[in-house]
Amino acid sequence: MRIRQSSLLLGTCLLFGCHPASGTHSTHVGGTSSTTRGAVATPPIARVEPVADAYHGTAVTDQYRWLEELEAESADVKSWTDGQNDHTRSVLEALPCREALTGELTTLMQLGGVGLPKMAGDLVFFTERTGTQNQPVLKVVTAGADPKTAARVLIDPNALSDQGLISLDWWEPTKDGTLLAYGTSQSGSELSELRVLRVATGEALSDVVTGKVDFGGWNPDKQAFAYSGLRDIKDPYSRESRWHVLGQDPAGDRIIVKQTDPSRIPWVGITDDGKWFFVGLSDGWQRNDLWIADAPAWIAGSELNRIPVAVDLDGRFEPQFSESGRFVMKTSFESPRGRLVSVEWGTPGQSSWKTIVPEGKAVLDGAGRTKHAMLVSWEADVHSEISIHSPEGQRTGSVELPGIGTASVSTSDEHGNFFAFYTSYNAPRTILSYDSPKANPTVWARTEVPADLSAIVVTQHFTPSKDGTKIPYFMVRRNDVTPSGANPTLLYAYGGFNVSLTPAFQATMLPWLDRGGVYVVANLRGGSEYGEAWHRAGMQANKQNVFDDLYAVAGSLIADRWTDSGHLAVEGGSNGGLLTGVAVTQLPELFACAISAVPLLDMLRFHQFLIAKYWVPEYGSSETPEGFEVLRAYSPYHNVKPGMRYPAVLFTAGENDSRVHPLHARKMAALLQAQAANGPDDPILLWVDRNAGHGAGKPLALRVRDEVDQWSFVMWQTGLCGTR
């Protein structure tokens, strides 16, 4: 029931995660002590080299175009970044709360955890990270055996790198569990290399496929598989879906379908019985085309005969599982909250679809088959529900969950039992085992946390945005924290790419809550919390809605006396880094500080770097007059006002990021450092990690450092980090 999406289709990869605009700053709550100020180095000044561009008759000047090069391409960029990193380290490492936070967060981040298992034959595969391990380890255990004592290690990425810089990106066993394909990458690059091993012995096969590989499925004979990857690793728009036969040279792999448009992503899957290919072409995160094709005929040498399922229709079409006479598809077409339709192989066109689970009030997440039933996952007011259905779609009950939180299930059509993953803001990740859909679950694995989680209160609230739309948000706090008008508060949000922020436990926020901080997650438009209409209300020309939603939540927190602008921090990463960059430039008086992690910030040129043309359907492009007007209006890099005092900002970037180019953080930091009326009490900081990409795959020590950096920065600027 889990659908593993291509890394190219992820919006985000990352979820970490005031003072007046003018006037004096002597009483700013985020100020340092005189001792700390004395230790702060001065950030290097970026030289100004103006480059003028013309956009549809409008001239726009870029003062820091030279910072768009990577360090490997420019010694000047590397030298300037060295100085920025040294400055940031001198500021953050002098903070009085850093030592205590390092100890607390190190302990919490060594708690580890178990991933959602997958059944194949009589085996159960799962990942686990324990203690000081840098990366999760893939393990396998016989069904019914104790995973704590009987599991054996299949892949240990920690043994592949002394520094813990190699990570396991994905893995997929054959249906009987005898072979396993998996992908690894280094230093957070996400440039997965595919390998294969025999599960019984751990023996590595000779097959190695490179090129940012995603898996498309095993042929039932276990001698071949479908996958997608880049033809040219330097060209992010050279994606091809291919067919690999074990033991053969991947250079000769046949192409099933290949990319011809930078904004359209091809992908291929194969059914468990090997009879059909699914061939997809995605346009952003709101729609895709879908075909089926006779797999055996193509494998035998025929041309690929694509039979349309949904072409040129305005919606998403996502196969959930297949059976002998049909497949079940989730779609948002004419049902923005989603429905399930049954599609017969012989007549797959729209006129023959049969709705088996209609659109409801909740948002449909996905569906999967057990041996005897169909399970359907829903998102209702931003929390998970799982319903039980007959194969024909009739609802027969609900799966019992521990509470209001986030759940996902892993099923197999050969087994009556299944696994579920569950978490919430005050409930650590737990793997539940169900003997049947209506059975009471047993705990298969759980992260034990050395803290009294009963003292943590989680509440959901709604507030009207600028246009009257009700925006939900979760508040997490200690039970003795009450509205005081000045509680240190961290507001996190994302708002884009159909990504839903449902409740999830984060051990790293416990020190913040222990010190009296309030943690808030806002569910802005642009996500999938209320279906495709909610997503489209926050994309392209509607993007300002997302920012207005954030301000509405911030305003509600202040109006309800939970905090004030001098104690309110805002944080986001990737698309959320854009969000915080916009918040800083549009309403600097609303926030004490901001964290903008691996952000997009130059929205006029974003599409010219790395894989960013894939995001044009989400944002639009400055290459059209309409797109330019929309993007220019909110692009953070183009809306900095000289002489304005902005919130303190910590920008982060990864030199190996294959999604968002570090130029965004570099250019924005340089511009704000040159033009903002900020000082050492509210600095503009930049940290570029040379051993990281977009965030995934970091070893434990680097993750601890990042968490300490971000939490100490927020505590400092909101008054929880020692003397002012």
What would you note in describing this structure?
The structure is a single chain. This protein has 724 residues and is α+β, with helices and mostly antiparallel strands. The chain is built from 13 helices and 39 strands. Strands 32-33-35-34-36-37-38-39 form an 8-stranded mixed sheet, sandwiched between helices. Strands 3, 4, 5, 6 and 7 form a 5-stranded antiparallel sheet that branches. Strand 34, helix 6 (510-514) and strand 35 form a beta-alpha-beta unit. Helix 3 crosses helix 13 (700-718). The longest helix has 19 residues, at 700-718. The protein is globular and about 65 Å long.
List strands and helices in order, with pairings.
Blueprint: H1 34-38, E1 51-55, E2 58-62, H2 75-92, H3 98-109, E3 113-114, E4 118-120, E5 123-129, E6 137-142, H4 147-150, E7 152-155, E8 166-173, E9 179-186, E10 193-198, E11 204-209, E12 214-218, E13 224-230, E14 239-245, E15 254-258, E16 264-270, E17 276-283, E18 287-294, H5 295-299, E19 306-310, E20 317-322, E21 326-331, E22 339-344, E23 354-357, E24 363-369, E25 374-380, E26 383-389, E27 395-398, E28 406-410, E29 418-424, E30 427-434, E31 442-446, E32 456-464, E33 470-478, E34 489-492, H6 510-514, E35 518-522, H7 532-536, H8 543-559, E36 568-573, H9 575-586, E37 593-597, H10 616-619, H11 625-634, E38 648-654, H12 663-675, E39 684-689, H13 700-718
Helix pairs in contact: 3-13
